[in-house]
């Protein structure tokens, strides 16, 4: 695990974009793994800047989202599909038809999860996975006690995550869905390269556990310790307990 402590969240995002730039130049048909949440927004902005000034192109790339709420239609402003379209897809030159996410409105949720795993595999697997982290150490929506070998599946969100994410729903906890579809930890760690970005004091304990703690389902991100190519990029506040 490479851990980089940047001067600021903006600098961490720029370093992440450098890594992605290198990867997409080496392989234009890159398969990118996309995270939602506020943490990766700086990376997406930086990628958009580089696409707009011609330094990189994502025109041949494809992308797979980590997770999606169950029950929100894809055009609901807080459905992860529309969030990703707002913060990433529309800002870069990727083909929107090649940006994929789990189908949170599927009637047969189990079949949708299996299909999603197959689609990732059919694309050749994820080359570079961008990750944020929850305050409780969750990655995607793999909450504490999730199996470290888990695959894409339906999960119940913890109260803490619903509280954390209620800010996106106007502070209304009842408006936050109770379930989600999420890539499993076993799915995520199959990505060839993983970039985890975190900023702010609220993430400091999760980062301490992820980097220095014992590997345990209690802190799902600790599973990354077994991965051969993980870069953790932090601002000083997120790194303050290391
Ligand atoms: C959600 C997402 C995660 C994300 C986490 C942290 O729970 N499912 O993928 O890492 O929030 O969000 P933020 O970056 O806004 O702190």
Automatic annotation (TrEMBL):
Enzyme Commission code(s) on record: 3.5.99.6
Residues forming the catalytic site: 67, 136, 138, 143
Organism classification: Bacteria, Bacillati, Actinomycetota, Actinomycetes, Micrococcales
Key words of the record: Allosteric enzyme, Carbohydrate metabolism, Hydrolase
Gene Ontology terms for molecular function: glucosamine-6-phosphate deaminase activity; identical protein binding
Pathway the protein contributes to: Amino-sugar metabolism; N-acetylneuraminate degradation; D-fructose 6-phosphate from N-acetylneuraminate: step 5/5
GO cellular component: cytoplasm
Organism in which the protein naturally occurs: Terrabacter aerolatus
Identification of the protein by name: Glucosamine-6-phosphate deaminase
Protein family (similarity comment): Belongs to the glucosamine/galactosamine-6-phosphate isomerase family. NagB subfamily.
Role according to the record: Catalyzes the reversible isomerization-deamination of glucosamine 6-phosphate (GlcN6P) to form fructose 6-phosphate (Fru6P) and ammonium ion.
Activity-regulation annotation: Allosterically activated by N-acetylglucosamine 6-phosphate (GlcNAc6P).
Swiss-Prot/TrEMBL GO biological process terms: carbohydrate metabolic process; glucosamine catabolic process; N-acetylglucosamine catabolic process; N-acetylneuraminate catabolic process
Record domain Glucosamine/galactosamine-6-phosphate isomerase: where: 7-227
